Predict the structure.
Amino acid sequence: MNILLVRVSSLGDVLHNLPMVADILRHHPDANIDWVVEEGYVSLVRLNPRVRRIIPFALRRWRKSLGKKETRAEIRGFFKAVREEEYDYVFDTQGLLKTGIIMGAARIKKGGRKVGLANGSEGSGYEGVSRIFHTQSIPTNPRTHAVARGRLVAGAALGYALDTRPDFGLPGLEHANRPAWMPAGDYAVFFHGTARNAKKWAPENWIATGHALAPMPVLLAWGSPLEKTEADTLAASLPNATVLPKLSMDEAVSLARNAALAIGVDTGLTHIAAAFMRPVIEIYCDSPKWKTEGNWSEQIINLGDKGAPPAVAEVLAAVKQLRGMA
């Protein structure tokens, strides 16, 4: 059986789709699973060795040069790659017009199905027009967890129930490399940056938490000039903090994967650390906890909620609990 997964972005959403692979292969061990994903996240999907073929999608880059013949040729090459294989099932778990078009372009075998979401979750960017590309639309509760949504859609189409915790299919820590910039011993990482200001935790909270962790090294990651400035401000008040250089996607994943403790707001790298089963404290300030909270490991503690960020004392109590497990 050949299956194509269409989940192109964003970082956290691609990560949350990974357990579909393990579920499908648990019930259909001979299945071949391919995946269409934004080119920037190919390295994340590649970490799961059970994905046979990854088809890079570069819409974010193509939009900047649609008038160039090289870009148009690349787009044609993309759709040719999508159509190389005939699939028994194509799953679009993003529910957007752009992912629906990809699904529509894919070839299916006689009797095959194109399966997608019948509705969005609360606060999602779901686009109902995507259903015109489906042969089967699966309804889900609007408050279904981000990890469970794709798993439920695949289970409904392929005829199995979810009876296990999510398996992200990621390699264990014993296979991890430690880049030269990474401390040789244990370190904590603060994933303090996020695109939406309301989701951020106050700088004084990060500083108080960092002081409480001393002398444990604290690494500060960043992904934009603004986040770099914020990281520099935090580091100036913390004797044990280091602002990292700008990291590639592979390096950022390695940072999350090797952390002895990750503390972060609701953002992709925080969720990557949780998927690697690291000790993680997820901080929710202005997004609903039910949507993405790590609920598959006792080493993940979720604090706060939409409109109710946690206090420093709650985070430090969680740190003590997690460090006690080590």
